[in-house]
Design a protein that fits this description.
The protein has about 210 residues and is mainly α. It folds into 2 domains: about 50 residues, no CATH class; about 130 residues, no CATH class. Helix content is about 50%, strand content about 5%. A two-stranded antiparallel sheet has the order 1-2. About 10% of the residues are buried.
Length: about 210
C-alpha cells in the first residue's frame, strides 16, 4: 500500500469516527434525520403504488380520416404485361389449398382476394426499387425483375373482402391499427373498424340518445 493510500485510509476512518460521535452527541438531530429518511421512503413507495394503479379505462374513440392519395397514370390491370403472373399466383394458391384469408378468424367475411402486400400496383411508378431491395433484402437485376416481383407471391397475400377493403380492411384502416386487427385476440374487439358515412351518422345519433 502506498503512502497516499495509507494516508487516505486513515483520513477516511477519522471522518467516519467524527460523524459517529456527532450523531451520538446530537441524538435529536440523528433522530430527525432518520424520520425524514423514513418519510421519503414511504412517499416513494406510495407514489410507486399509485403509478401502478393508474389504468386507462376501455373506451371507443371516433376518428374522421381525410386522405389525399396520389395515384400516377398507369395502364389498366388487364393491359399490364405482368398481369398474367398475378392470375398464375392466384391459381397456384387455389391448387395448393391456400385460397383463404391468411388472418382466418371470426372477423373474416366475403370471398378471398389477392392483396399487394408491400407495393400496390397503382403505385408501381412511384416506388423506388432500390428502397424495396434495401427494406426487404431483395435484389432486382432490371426494372423488369421489379415489375414481375410486384405481381409475384412475394408481394401478394390472400385476404377476405372484410380484411381487404371492407369493415376491417387494410385499405381503409390506418396501418398501426390494422396490424393490431391482423393479430387481434379471439373474443376481443378489433382495434379499429371502418364505418361508412351513414354508419358513422347512425352511431353519432345513437350516442345522443
Amino acid at each position: 500500500m502506498g503512502l497516499f493510500n495509507r494516508w487516505f485510509g486513515k483520513e477516511k476512518a477519522r471522518v467516519k469516527t467524527r460523524a459517529k460521535k456527532a450523531a451520538q452527541s446530537h441524538p435529536k438531530a440523528a433522530k430527525a434525520a432518520s424520520k425524514v429518511k423514513e418519510k421519503a421512503e414511504h412517499a416513494h413507495e406510495r407514489a410507486s403504488h399509485a403509478k401502478a394503479a393508474v389504468v386507462t379505462a376501455a373506451h371507443q374513440q371516433a376518428l374522421t380520416l381525410h386522405m389525399l392519395t396520389h395515384i400516377p397514370s398507369h395502364h389498366p390491370r388487364e393491359d399490364d404485361p405482368h398481369y398474367h403472373l398475378f392470375e398464375q399466383a392466384k391459381e397456384r394458391l387455389k391448387r395448393q389449398g391456400l385460397w383463404k384469408c391468411v388472418i382466418d378468424d371470426e372477423l373474416c367475411d366475403g370471398q378471398p382476394e389477392l392483396h399487394h402486400t408491400h407495393v400496390e400496383f397503382s403505385q408501381i411508378n412511384q416506388v423506388d426499387p432500390k428502397a424495396v431491395e434495401k427494406h426487404l433484402g431483395l435484389h432486382f437485376e432490371t426494372d423488369e425483375d421489379f415489375q414481375e416481383w410486384v405481381e409475384s407471391p412475394g408481394n401478394l397475400e390472400v385476404l377476405c373482402v372484410n380484411h381487404h377493403r371492407a369493415h376491417y380492411g387494410i385499405h381503409v384502416i390506418p396501418g398501426p391499427l390494422w396490424e393490431a386487427v391482423r393479430y387481434h385476440k379471439k373474443g376481443t374487439k378489433a382495434a379499429a373498424e371502418f364505418l361508412s358515412n351513414d354508419e358513422a351518422k347512425a352511431l353519432a345519433d345513437k350516442s345522443k340518445d
